[in-house]
Write a structure and sequence with these properties.
The protein folds into 2 domains: 2-221, P-loop containing nucleotide triphosphate hydrolases (Rossmann fold, 3-Layer(aba) Sandwich), CATH 3.40.50; 227-289, Alpha-Beta Plaits. The two termini are 29 Å apart. The longest helix is centred in the middle third of the chain and has 18 residues, at 166-183. The chain is elongated and about 75 Å long. Helices cover 37% and strands 28% of the residues. The chain has 11 helices and 14 strands.
Length: 307
């Protein structure tokens, strides 16, 4: 079962579609990294999943049920979310903010639950200080705490690392992973901090101009971002067959122009020696290093060209 399945989603404001023909599949148990440029439609998609915004077209299923079905809807009862700015009452303390929401949700043992979550997000020492005096990072952590109050099965976080210092960023990443591994919470994280996503997500979705460009596993991303070696010879088919035989643990791709791209556990010097031993006429032997940021930028730019 999918935690989220979006089919043909569209959202228009004033005749302009900010999301159009969008589809998405988040597997139950995923930590899903949702990647896209500012204005690509990430927050709008999250708002449609959580029933904060009605779609113009299409359907969203949350754990197999329409998100907009009934009252309260499945999204309201099983989903926690921090989208854009946290909904914090500035005149109240962190604890009082938690208690207001806990009582509104009818949570049993509201005091104990509020204190527990404040410990999780690192705000148990905030005392009676009013939330309006919090740093941006503290407000962000309180917003995440509020999202966790109802013990959600699905947690959506929109740029949760904003305003956090390196220690706070590490603590939040570890919290997300603990919620996922220990409590089975499916988490969707929209973030520009790709280094943090790379350390925790299991699958990615890339959005450009309101459309899903590509969904892929973390392993597929790591493979795509790994170093590669481009080989061109005068007899590419023969060269490919011989290299595959000599380097069985590597991955090979023949590009339309005859370039052989090698990835995986290769050493450029070993490949060069093999080509000499094969008496191949080498036209090109180039090693390429690509990081995760470059990879996603390429996907987003490619997606925009096809929108």
């Amino acid at each position: 079962m999918y935690a989220i399945e979006a089919r043909g989603l569209a959202k228009a404001y004033g005749g302009r579609r900010v999301v159009n023909g969008f589809s998405m599949q988040v597997h139950k148990g995923d930590i899903y990294g949702f990647v896209g440029k500012n204005g690509a439609g990430k927050s709008t998609v999250m708002k449609m999943v959580t029933c904060l915004v009605a779609p113009t077209e299409g359907e969203v299923l949350v754990f197999g049920r329409p998100a907009w079905q009934g009252a309260p809807g499945v999204a309201e009862s099983r989903v926690g979310a921090l989208i854009e700015s946290p909904g914090i009452l500035g005149e109240l303390s962190a604890y009082d903010n938690m208690m207001v929401k806990a009582l509104a949700l009818g949570i049993p043992d509201a005091k104990e639950r509020s204190q527990e979550i404040l410990r999780w997000v690192g705000l148990s020492a905030a005392g009676k200080k009013r939330a309006k005096g919090f740093s941006q990072g503290m407000k962000q952590r309180l917003g995440i705490g509020l999202a966790l109050l109802g013990s959600p099965d699905l947690l959506l976080l929109d740029e949760p690392f904003n305003g956090l210092d390196p220690e706070g960023t590490r603590d939040l990443r570890q919290l997300i992973m603990r919620l996922n591994e220990s409590f089975g919470v499916t988490v969707v994280v929209s973030s520009h901090v790709l280094e943090q996503l790379d350390r925790m997500v299991t699958r990615y979705g890339v959005i450009a101009d309101g459309r899903m460009v590509r969904e892929m596993t973390a392993e597929e991303v790591r493979q795509a971002c790994g170093d590669s070696l481009a080989v061109r010879t005068t007899q590419p088919d023969v060269t490919l067959a011989q290299l595959e035989q000599r380097f069985p643990d590597c991955r090979f791709l023949m590009e339309p122009d005859g370039t052989i791209r090698i990835s995986g556990p290769f050493e450029a010097t070993a490949v060069a020696q093999a080509l000499r031993a094969m008496d191949a006429t080498v036209l090109e032997l180039t090693e390429t290093r690509r990081d995760i940021e470059e990879f996603f930028v390429e996907l987003m730019e490619g997606g925009k060209r096809h929108v």
